[in-house]
Amino acid sequence: MTTTPPLTLLPMLVTLPAIGALGLLIAPVSAAVSRRLTLGLMLLVAALAATLLGVDTAPGPRLWLADWAPSIGTQALLGIDGLSLPLVLLTAALCPLALLASEAINQRVKTFCVLMLLLETGMLGVFLSLDFVLFYVCWELILIPMYFLIGLWGGANRQAAALKFFVFTLIGSLLMLAGGLIAYGHSDLTPLSATQLAAAGVFGPHAVASSGAEATAMQEAWLATGSPSATNFDRAQAEGHALRSFNLLALAQIGSSTDQFAVPLFGGHNAAWWAFVLLLAGMAIKLPAVPLHTWLPAAHVEAPTGVSMLLAGVLLKLGGYGLVRIAWPLCPAAAAELAWLVAGVGAISIVWGALAALAQDDFKRLVAYSSVSHMGYVLLGLAAGSVATSSGGAWLAERWTLGATGAVFQMVAHGVTSAGLFFAVGVVYERFGHRDLRRLGGLINPMPLGSGLAIVLFMASLGVPGLCGFVGELLPLLAAWQAHPLAVAAAAAATVLTALYTLRAIRLAYFGADAPPDDPRALEAKPLRATEILVLAPLALAAIVLGVRPQPLLERIEPAIAARAHALQAPSHTSATAKLPTFLPLTRHDAPDAGRTTRR
Amino acid sequence: MLVAWLAPLAAFVAAAIVPTIEHRRRGRVSIATARAVAQVATACSVLSLGLALVALAAWVWRGSDQPPIVGDWFRFVRVGPLDLSAGYCLDTLSVVMTTVVTLVATCVHVYARGYFTEEMAPEGVVDSEVLSGTLPLQREGRLHRFYQHLSLFLFSMLGLVLSGNLAMTFVFWELVGLSSYLLIGFYYEREAAANAASKAMLVNRLADVGLLLGMIALWNATGGLVFIDGEGGGLLSAGQALRESGGANYRMLCWAGLGLFCGCLGKSAQFPLWTWLPDAMQGPTPVSALVHSATMVAAGVFLIGRVYPLLTPEVLVIVASVGALTLLIGAVLACAAADFKRVLAFSTISQLGYMMLAMGLGGWVAGIFHLMTHAMFKSLLFLAAGAVIHATHSGDLAQLGGLRQRMPRTAWLTGIGVLAIMGAGIPGLGLGLSGFYSKDLIFEQAIGFYRANSWAGWLLVAPTIGAALTAFYMGRLWLLTFAGKPRSVAAAEAHEAAPTLLLPMLVLAALAISAGWTLPGLNASLAALLDAGSPAPHQLTVGTLWPEAVIPGAHDHHAPGIKLRAGLLALGATAAGLALVGISRLRGRLANPLGAGVVQALDLRTLPAINRGFATSVRSCGTFLAEAIDRWTIDNSLIGFTRGLWRGGVALHRIETGSLRHYIVFLVLGVVFLGSLAILAVV
Questions:
Q1: Residues A568 and A400: beta-carbon distance below 8 Å
Q2: Closest CA to B328 of B464, B454, B421
C-alpha cells in the first residue's frame, strides 16, 4: 500500500483550480502569462488525477472526510471509486486540451482563464463529492462560469443562448435539489447496522470493517471520540428521533436496505418515487434527454470551441453520473418501476437526436444533436436491469451491472469523441469563418492529418468497431434487450440514421474536390498547427485505444457498479404501506417461495 | 496454430505503418515513399498467403474432419454476464477461405502496381472526370493511401474469416465495410464516387441492424457468442440443441436467424439491398476485383456457412428464395448493362444469388464451393476489365470492340473466365472448368430439394433460367469487347497489357480452370475437402413451424440419376443462352438486346429515384423534429412558461434583462423555499 497516493489528494484536486483562479484574479499578470499559468495548473491537476490510478478502488470507494456542518447532517465527504475515477480523469484531461483549443480567445483572457479554472473545480467537485450538499454546491458552481463563458465569448446570439442554458439547467438543478431534500427529509441513520455505517464512512474515512463485530467495535470507538457528529448520533439514538443525513453512501444504504423512503407522500406514490422522478427530471435536463434537450444545440452553436469541448465532454456526463450515483442507489424500487419510462426516453432521444442531426447544415449543430443521440444510450443502459422480482433478482442485477457499466463507458467514450469533434469543427470554423456544410468541401487534400483524425473521431462516434463508440453502444443494447426489446430495436435502427448524418458530414466537409489554387478558399485551408495536433491527436488516439482494449477501463468501472447492483438486487423492504405492487420487491426470505409459485 | 494469428497481423502491420510514414512527411508524399509503401503492403500480403498455404497444408495433413482449433488472443470485454474475447476458430471453412482471400489479395496487390501508373507520375494526376473551374482537376498521386486502405481491408477480411465468435465477426464485418467505404471513395473528388461510398456503407449499416439484433437476441438466449468452445460446446451446438428441441425458443431462433441473414442481404448484395454494388464500381478496378467480387461480398455467404447449424428450415427456405430472386434480377440487369464493369457487377450479384440459393437448399458444400470458384474466375474477369480500361480509358461497351487483335492475351484470359462462369464442361466425363463443378453441384442440390419439396419447383426453374442468362450476358460481353471492329479511336489504338497486369491474371486463370479438379491419384479435391468439414446434417430436417419446409440431408443429392440430370440441365441452359447470343449477334442487336431500354431505365433511373426519395423523406422528417418541434413547440412553450413564472413572481420580470444577480437571488430563495418545505413536510 506504500504506492497508494494519500487521499488528501482528493480535496487538493477540487480546490487547486479554485485557489489558482483566486490567485490569478489578484496577481497582476499579462494575458499570455495567465494563459500559461492556467495551462500549467491544469496540467498539474491532470498529473495529480493520473496518480489516482494507483488507488485500488476494487473493494469500494476510498474516502476523505472533514466535518462541515454536522448539525444538519452534512460533511465534506469526498471519495473515489470505479465510477468517479474515469470521469475525473476525463475532466482533468479535457480541461488543458480545452484551454489549448481556446487560442482564438484574445479578449479578457485573464477572466476567461479564471472562469475555466472555476469550472474545473466545479466539475471535479461533482464527480468527487459523496455528500449531497457538496454535490449540489459544485453542481451550481458549474452553472455560473459556464453562463459567462457562453455569454461573454460566444457567437452572435450568445446572450439568448446563455440565458436559455442558465434557465434550463437552473430548473433542472432545483428539481434535483427537491428530490435530494425529499430523501434527506425521510432519512434516518440510526437504524442502520454498524457495518453499513462503516461502509458509508460515518465512522471516519478509513473505517472499512471486514466483519460485523469489528464494525461494532469501530462504532463504539467512534462514539467515544465525542466528535460533533458522534454526539449527534448518540443523542438521536438515545432520544429516539431520526438523524438526517446528506451522506450519499448512507442514503444509498437506506434506500436499498430499509423502508424509510417507502412512506406515502402524495398522489398515491411514496417518497422514493417522488425523489426518483425529481432526480430523474433534473438530471435528464443536463444529460440532455428529449424533450428537455433544446438548450444544448443553442448553447453549442454559440459557445467558443474550448467551452463546447467541455460542455459536451464533461457537462453532459454530470447528468448520467448523477443518475448512477444518486437516483438508482437511493430509489432502486422506483427506478425499477419506472425503467420503461427511462428506456423509452432513451430510445426516443437516440432516434430524435439522430434525425435532427440529419437535418442540420451547421456543422456544429449537427455534432450537438449527435450528442443528444449518444447520451440516449446512457439512459437505455441504466434501464436494463429493471424488474426487481425475487425470482430473477441476481440475474437482473447482472443486467444492471452490464448496462450501467456500458452507460459509464459510453459517457467516457462520448466525452472523448464529442470533445474531439467539436474541436475539429472549431478548426474548420477558425479557417473559414463559417460552419455551413454546403459551402465546405475537399478539406482532405489541403489538410490530410486534420481530416484523417477528424474522420477517425467521426467513425468512433458512428460506432465503428475498434473505436470507442462501439463498446459504449453495444453494452447497453445487449443488456437492455431482455427488458426493453422494442427500445433496443429502435436504438439499433437508429444506427442507420447515425451513419446517414455522419457520412453526410464527412462527404460534404472532407471529400469532394478541393478548391483550385487561385480560389481564396485554398489559401484558408491551412494544415493543422502543432498546438492543434496536440489537441486532436490524443483524443483520436484515446478513441482507438478505448475501442481496441476497453477491458482495463471496464475493469475499473465494474466493481463500483456491481456493488451497487448487489444492493439493488435484494432491497428488503418490509413496509406494508405500499400502494404499488411492484414497488415492494419480496425480501430475501420470501424469495424461494416466490420462485416456486412462478415455476410450478 | 500461430499461423492463423500471424497472417492478419502481418497485414495489420502494413496497414499501421503506412499512415505513419505518410503523416511524417507532411505536405507531399514522395513517389519513393508511395512505392515503398506499396512494396511493404505487397510483401505482407505475400507473407499472409504463404502462411495461409502452410496452414492449408497442415490442415489437410491433419485430416479435415478433425474438430476445429479454437482459442483466444486477448479478452475484449468482460462485464457481469458478458464475456467477449478476440478469439479465433480454425476449421475447414476458415482455412480454405483464408487461402482464397490471401491469394486473390496478393494477385491484386501485384496487379495494382501496374494499374496505378498515373498515381506514381511525378507531375501529379489529372482526373478528367472532375472539373476544377474549367480545367480537369489536377491532384497529387496517392498510391500510398490506396495500399493503406487495401491493407486495412485485408486485415479486416482475415479477421472476419478467422474470428471465433459472433461479436468478433460483427467487429470485422463492420471494419470490412469501413475499408470498402474508403476504397470506393478513393476518387473522392468525383461526386459519383463519394456518393457511392456513402451509399455502400449506409445500405450495409441498414442490413447490419438485423445482424446486430440477431446477435443480441442470440446472446440473450444462449448466454454466449463463441461459435465453438474448447469443450465442444458453444453457440453453434447450443443453437442446434434449441433447433432440435423445438419449443418456445424455436421461434426466437427463427427471428435471430432472419436477423443474421438480414446482415448478409446487405453485404452480399441480395434482394432488395443490391443497389449499392453496381454503384461501388466507382472504386478503382483492382478494388472491384478483390473487395466487390471475390471476398467481401462473399462474406454474407460465408457468414451463412459459419452459423449454418443455427438456421432453421424455415429460415433456409427464405434464404433460398431470396437467392433465387436475386440471381434472376442480377442476370436480367447484366444482360442490359452498357458498361463492362457494370455487367460484371450484376453478374456478381447473380452469382451471389446462386450461392445463397445453394446454402438455402441445404447445399453447404455447393454454396461454399461456388464461392471459391467464383472468387477465382470473377476476380480474373475484373482484372481483365481493368486491363481493358487501362488500355482504352473507357469501360463503355459502345466504345470498345475488336480488341482481340490489339490485346490477344487479355482476350484469351478473359475467354477462360467467361467459359468458367458459364460452367463449360462435359457432363458425361465430368471434366470442365471450375465453374462447371460448382454449378453442377448447385443443380444437383436444386433437384434434390425439389424431390423433397414438390411445391418448390421455381427454386429449380430460377437457376436454370439464370444459367441461360449467364451464358447470354457473358457471351455478349466478350463479343462486344473483343470481337468485331473497334468502335472508337481509343479501342483501335489500344495496346496489350503490361506483364505486371498479365501475371496475376494468368495465375487466376490457371485456378479458374483447375479449382474444381480432383488431384490425380490422390482423390483429393476442394469439394471433397469442404465436404469433410461440412456442418450440414446428414439426415433431412423438417421445419417445426412450417412442416412443409424439408431440407434434404447433406448427401441426399448423390441419389442415382440426379448427377446426370443436373449436368444436362446446366448444359442445356447454357447452350440455349449461347444460341441466344448467336441470334442476337446475327440480328445486330447485341449491344441493345430486346427489352434493354426498360431494364436500363429501371436500373439507372427508377431505383436511384426511389433511393433519393427515401433519403429526402428521412431528412425532412429530421427537419420537422429539429425545427417544428424543437425550435417552435418545445422552446416556445418553455419560454412562455418561464415568462409566465417570472411575471407571476414579485417584480421579477427584470430578470429577463439577463442580470445574473437576480438569478442567484432566485436560486438561493428557491433553495431555502424548497428545503424548508421538504423538511417541514417530514419533521
A1: yes
A2: B464
- B219 touching A, CB under 8 A? yes
Q: Do A527 and B74 touch (CB under 8 A)?
A: no
Mean pLDDT along residues B532-556:
74
Write down the mean pLDDT value for chain B: 79
CB contact under 8 A, A503 and B201: yes
CA B173, CA B300: separation in Å to the nearest integer?
A: 9
Nine-digit cell string for A200: 458509508
Contact B277, B140 (CB under 8 A): no
Query: Which amino acid appears at position A383 of this protein?
Result: A
**Distance, CA of A419 to CA of A284 (rounded, Å):** 20
Is B622's CB within 8 Å of A355's CB? yes
Judged against a pLDDT cut of 50, whether residue B508 lies above it is answered with yes
Amino acid at residue number B483: A
Query: Helix A551-569 to helix A393-432 angle, to the nearest 10 degrees?
Result: 140
pLDDT tens for residues B364-405?
888 888 998 898 888 889 888 888 888 888 778 777 777 778
Count Cβ atoms within 10 A of the Cβ of residue A429 and give its class: 0-12 exposed, 13-18 middle, 19 or more buried: middle
Q: Give dist(CA B315, CA A302) in Å, integer.
A: 53
Residues 6+ apart with CB under 8 A from A225: none
Residues, chain A, total?
Answer: 600
At residue B224, what is the residue type?
G
- Is B23's Cβ below 8 Å from some Cβ in A? yes
Cross-chain Cβ contact A527/B80 below 8 Å = no
Q: Which three cell numbers stand for residue A359?
A: 437535418
DSSP at B89: E
In this structure, what C-alpha cell is assigned to residue A91? Answer: 475532466
Q: What's the Cα-to-Cα distance from B499 to each of A475, B102, B496, rounded to whole Å?
A: 51, 21, 9
Pairwise CB contact (< 8 Å): B132 & A369: no
Residue A533 grid cell: 495536433
Q: Using 50, 70 and 90 to split pLDDT, how confident is the model at B413?
A: confident
Nearest CA in chain B to A264: B682
Grid coordinates representing B539? 439426415
Interatomic CA distance for residues A417 and A544, integer angstroms: 10
- Report the DSSP beta bridge partners of residue B541: B551
Minimum distance, in Å, between the CA of residue A217 and any CA atom of chain B: 32
User: Pick the residue with more confidence: A456 or B483?
Assistant: A456
Question: Which position has the higher pLDDT, B378 or B425?
Answer: B378
Q: Read off φ and ψ for residue A269, nearest 5 degrees.
A: -115, 155
d(CA A594, CA B327) in angstroms, rounded, equals 56
Q: Is B126 helix (H, G, I), strand (E, B) or coil?
A: strand
Return the bridge partners of A264, or none: A270
pLDDT along chain A (600 residues), means of 10: 65 87 85 88 90 78 74 78 90 92 84 90 91 88 87 83 83 88 83 79 69 79 80 82 82 77 77 88 87 84 89 90 87 82 91 87 89 91 62 67 90 93 89 82 79 89 88 89 87 89 87 66 71 87 89 85 65 34 33 34
| Angstrom distances, CA of residue A536 to CA of A62, A190, A299, A455 | 33, 52, 22, 11
Are A13 and A124 contacting, i.e. CB atoms less than 8 angstroms apart?
yes
Q: What is the ipTM of this complex?
A: 0.84
From the number of C-beta atoms within 10 Å of its C-beta (0-12, 13-18, 19+), residue B291 rates as buried
Are the C-beta atoms of residues B51 and B8 closer than 8 Å to each other? no
CA-only gyration radius of chain A, Å: 24
Residue of A nearest to B169 (CA): A465
Q: Exposed, middle or buried by CB within 10 Å (0-12, 13-18, 19+), for B337?
A: buried
Give the model confidence (pLDDT) of B257-304 as tens digits.
889 999 899 888 888 888 888 888 888 888 888 888 888 888 999 999
pTM of the entire predicted model: 0.87
